[in-house]
Amino acid sequence: MKDVCNSxxxxxxxxxxxxxxxxGFCAGVDRAIQIVERAIEKFGAPVYVRHEIVHNRHVVxxxxxxxxxxxxxxxxxxxxxxxxxxxxxVPKSVPKEAQRRQLIYVDATCPLVSKVHVEAERHHNxxxxxxxxxxxxxxxxxxxxxQLPEGAVTLIETCEDVMRMVPQDPKNLAFVTQxxxxxxxxxxxxxxxxxxxxxxxxxxxxxICYATTNRQxxxxxxxxxxxxxxxxxxPNSSNSMRLVEVARRAGASDVHxxxxxxxxxxxxxxxxxxxxxxxxxSAPENLVTDLLALLKERFAITVQNQVSAREDVVFKLPxxxxxxxARLGE
Length: 330
Hints:
Blueprint: H1 2-7, E1 13-21, H2 27-43, E2 47-50, H3 57-66, E3 68-71, E4 83-85, H4 93-100, E5 105-107, H5 111-125, E6 129-133, H6 139-145, E7 153-156, H7 159-164, E8 173-177, H8 183-196, H9 210-222, E9 228-232, H10 238-249, E10 255-258, E11 274-279, H11 286-298, E12 299-307, H12 319-327
C-alpha cells in the first residue's frame, strides 16, 4: 500500500485565473498591422516602416519576417520603396518630406489620434494656444505637437505643470490629450486646468480612446480580488504601462508587466490563489493563450472571463490598400 501511495502523482494546486476583457489589440492597432501586411502584398518586400508600427516586439518580428524594415527616420528609406507611418502619428514635416521625395507612403495613424490632430489644428486656427496633456517623448505626443508651428503647443504632464504655466492669454486656451493615458490621471489634470482657466476650450468628446478606457475599466474590475496581475505589453507602450498603474491603484496585491510568459519569475506565483491577466492594446492574444497553456501544466486552473465591455469598432484601410484587398478576394 505504501508503494502505491508513493507512486501517485502530487495533486496540482488550484489557481483561479481572472481574464480581463476587453484586452489586447484595439481597432487602431489591428488596422495598422493590416496596413503593413497589405502594403507588402501590394508592393512586395521590402516595405519600410518609420518607427515601430505599434509598441510590441512580437508584432514587429512578425512583420519583419514578412518583409517589413523598421527605420528611425525617413532618410533611411530608399527613394524607390514605399514607407508606412506608424499608428502613433507623425509630425506634418514627415509626409511633407515624403511628398518632396515623391515616395509612395501610407499613413497608418490611428483615426482616434488623427481626431486629436484635427482638434488641435481647429483650436490653433481659432487663435487659441493648445495645451497637450501627455508624456514627453512619446511618439504620439511628438506627432501631435508636430501638427502645429513651434511654440503653438504646450505639453502638460502633471497638475504641477498646470500651476506653473504662465500663458500669454489665459482667456484663449484649449486642451487636447494623448489617447493612451490613464483616465484617472487625466481627469485630475483636466480638473486643475478648468479650475485655473475657467474658459478653457475642451474636446467635443473624450480624447482618451475607447480601447484605453475599456481596458482600464476591465483591469479595475479584476484587480481587487487578485494576488497577482500580469499585464502583457511593452515597457515603451503607454497604454500597457497605464494598465500596470491602474491595477496597482485598484488594489492588486502585486502587478508585473511582461512581454511574454518567458518573463515570469517562478516565485511570482508562490502563494498565488487568484491570478489576473490582461494585455495592452498592442499585445497579441496568442501571448495570453500561450501563458494559459503553461499554467495548465503546473496548476489545476479555473478561468473566469471578466467582461466589462463589448467592442465592435472597425477602422477602414486606406483606399490604395482596400482596392488591393478586393483584388485578393477579401
